TrEMBL record:
This is RNA 2',3'-cyclic phosphodiesterase. The active site is at 40 (proton donor), 125 (proton acceptor). A motif (HXTX 1) lies at residues 40-43. Belongs to the 2H phosphoesterase superfamily. ThpR family. It comes from Clostridium isatidis. Keywords: Hydrolase, Ligase. A motif (HXTX 2) lies at residues 125-128. GO terms for molecular function: 2',3'-cyclic-nucleotide 3'-phosphodiesterase activity; ligase activity; RNA 2',3'-cyclic 3'-phosphodiesterase activity.
Length: 180
């Protein structure tokens, strides 16, 4: 089973991300674009695990969210991770102390059950497309998109399974832990 820990979004946030993605598609020659239902913020990609580890991961999530209060996130920029002539395009989130505290708690609890900490710096982002080739220069593309300051309520953490259903990639919640 392939799993990760994420913050899921309300439908209005997914709808807005889809608007941004549609603008991006119109300015792209090609790309592999995330389906709307799969928009999320990854806190920890874990990868392939067997079922015996799932319960331990759930317990780690439970411990990580103890005392954590609801908070809000906001979009702050569109970015890219270059991959040769193609890019992973994403919508970034404004750095919030609460998000980093949650991220650190999750990393620390998972390390206790022998899931290695991430070595790369945490860059909170929502992937809108992979292997994207823009029709124009990235900086020109950025000038055409202005992000709204929509509040994204964070009140829970989800353990997600990444699987294919009828050939389509789906992210399915296996466990959801509310903060309160």
């Amino acid at each position: 089973m392939r799993v990760f820990i994420a913050i899921e979004f309300q439908d209005k946030i997914k709808d807005y991300l889809k608007e941004i993605q549609d603008l991006t598609k119109a300015k792209s020659e090609k790309g592999n674009f995330t389906i709307k239902d799969n928009f999320h913020l990854t806190l920890k990609f874990i990868g392939e695990v067997d079922l015996t580890l799932i319960e331990k991961i759930k317990e780690a999530i439970d411990k990580a969210v103890i005392g954590h209060n609801n908070f809000k996130l906001y979009f702050n920029k569109i970015g890219k991770f270059p991959r040769g002539s193609k890019s992973i395009l994403w919508v970034g989130l404004k750095i919030e102390k609460e998000l980093y505290l949650l991220y650190d708690k999750i990393e620390n609890e998972l390390e206790k059950i022998n899931i290695k900490k991430e070595e790369r710096k945490f860059t909170p982002h929502i992937t809108i497309g992979r292997e994207v080739v823009l029709k124009e220069n990235f900086n020109n593309f950025l000038k055409e998109i202005e992000l709204k300051k929509l509040p994204i309520l964070v009140d829970k953490v989800s353990l997600m399974e990444s699987t294919r259903v009828n050939g389509e990639l789906k992210y399915i919640p296996l466990y959801v832990k509310n903060f309160k």
